[in-house]
Write a structure and sequence with these properties.
There is one protein chain. This protein is an alpha+beta fold and 59 residues long. It has one domain: 3-Layer(aba) Sandwich (Rossmann fold), CATH 3.40.50.20. The protein is 24% helix and 32% strand. The chain has one helix at 16-29, and strands at residues 3-10, 35-42, 48-50. Helix 1 (16-29) links the parallel strand 1 (3-10) and strand 2.
Length: 59
């Protein structure tokens, strides 16, 4: 059974883009054979959402 990991990224701060880029790096490098990865973003207005898009867009 795989362990579940939730990656939370973004924020209302000026560091929003940096957080997204960092999360993209983490998500890309997690072992998908070992972990079920779930992504939760926080937009610049503070709204939380499940992110299912391409994490590579932040590169």
């Amino acid at each position: 059974m795989k362990e579940k990991i939730l990656v939370i990224f973004g924020s209302m701060s000026s560091e929003h883009e940096i957080s997204c880029m960092s999360a993209g790096n983490i998500i890309q490098n997690l072992d998908k054979e070992k972990y079920d990865v779930y992504n939760m973003g926080i937009d610049k207005q503070g709204k939380f959402y499940i992110y299912t898009g391409n994490v590579r867009k932040y590169y």
